[in-house]
């Protein structure tokens, strides 16, 4: 029997830097396990894409996968959109910004399907010429608690999905309930992108690339919810379906 080839889904890696122990400052490549298990749950093969500096190696990383997930984590440095850091900015990792921007650039050039989650959504927006609010307190009218701080798999607020968007086609719902772990948010939207979901206080919850290319960024963390909310599996299945094309 001929073996059916499963698509390879790359998940952008991060660095965990030891603050003590035997090797202070030691860097460990990692990605949260929820991303890996969500991809595997949807019958695709997950690969961690670790941070490197060589452009040719990064191109090869992208060439060897069928779709890319830009994972969450550090705040994006505001120097990337020509702002100075606000006092409420969290921890940054500039080498990760540089790597993620290159991953995204090469993935776009190679027409790979792309899903950005939390920081990943923000990377898509900034890389495309958009900007971010450095803290939710800087957004007029923001009143919803967007960082639930614990119970990662629990939905805590509403996201309103814009009809006619790729995201609406995937989810099939005008409103869904999402989890929330962020204090930055999209401000100016990148050229060629539209807002496809907002919270009830107007904070951007998702963006997507105009046209046919599958490039979607979402602010919540569906990978933490796939075991308990089948609707969140639809996001990963949509990415995998695109990777199969």
Structure description:
The chain is of the alpha/beta class and 245 residues long. The chain is 26% helix and 23% strand. The protein contains six helices and 13 strands. The strands form three sheets. Strands 4-1-5-6-13-12-11-8-9 form a nine-stranded mixed sheet, with helices on both faces. The chain has a two-stranded antiparallel ribbon with strand order 2-3. Strand 5, helix 3 and strand 6 form a beta-alpha-beta unit. Helix 2 crosses helix 3 (94-109) and helix 3 (94-109) packs across helix 4.
Helix content: 25-40%
**Strand order in the sheet with the most strands:** 4-1-5-6-13-12-11-8-9
Poorly predicted regions:
none
- Average pLDDT level: 96
Number of domains: 1
Biggest sheet overview: 9 strands, mixed
Distance between the termini: 22 Å
CATH structural fold name: Rossmann fold
Shape, principal axes of CA atoms: globular
Cα Rg? 17 Å
Q: Based on the structure given, which CATH architecture is correct?
A: 3-Layer(aba) Sandwich
Number of helices: 6
| CATH homologous superfamily placement | Class I glutamine amidotransferase (GATase) domain
Overall structural class, as computed from helix and strand content, comes to alpha/beta
The tally of strands reads 13
How big a fraction of the residues is strand?
15-25%
CATH hierarchy class name = Alpha Beta
Summarize the helix and strand pattern as letters: EEEHEHEHEHEEHEEEEEH
């Amino acid at each position: 029997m001929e073996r059916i080839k499963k698509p390879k889904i790359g998940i952008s890696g991060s660095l965990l830097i030891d603050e003590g122990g035997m090797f202070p400052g030691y860097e460990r490549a990692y990605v949260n396990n929820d991303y890996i298990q969500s991809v595997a749950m949807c019958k695709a093969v997950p690969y961690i894409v670790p941070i490197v500096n060589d452009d040719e190696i990064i191109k090869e990383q992208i060439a060897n996968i069928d779709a890319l997930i830009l994972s969450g984590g550090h705040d994006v440095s505001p120097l990337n959109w020509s702002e100075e850091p606000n006092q409420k900015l969290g921890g940054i990792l500039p080498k990760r910004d540089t790597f993620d921007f290159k991953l995204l650039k090469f993935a776009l050039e190679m027409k790979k399907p792309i899903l950005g989650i939390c920081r990943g959504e923000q990377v898509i927006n900034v890389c495309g010429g958009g900007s971010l609010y450095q803290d939710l307190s800087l957004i007029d009218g923001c009143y919803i608690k967007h960082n639930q701080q614990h119970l990662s798999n629990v939905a805590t607020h509403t996201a309103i999905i814009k009809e006619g968007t790729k995201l609406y086609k995937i989810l099939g719902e005008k409103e869904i309930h999402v989890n929330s772990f962020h204090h930055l948010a999209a401000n100016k939207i990148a050229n060629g992108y539209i807002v496809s979901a907002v919270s009830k206080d107007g904070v951007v919850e998702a963006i997507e690339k105009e046209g046919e290319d599958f490039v979607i960024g979402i602010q919540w963390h569906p990978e933490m919810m796939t075991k308990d909310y089948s609707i969140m599996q639809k996001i990963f299945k949509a990415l995998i379906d695109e990777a199969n094309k």
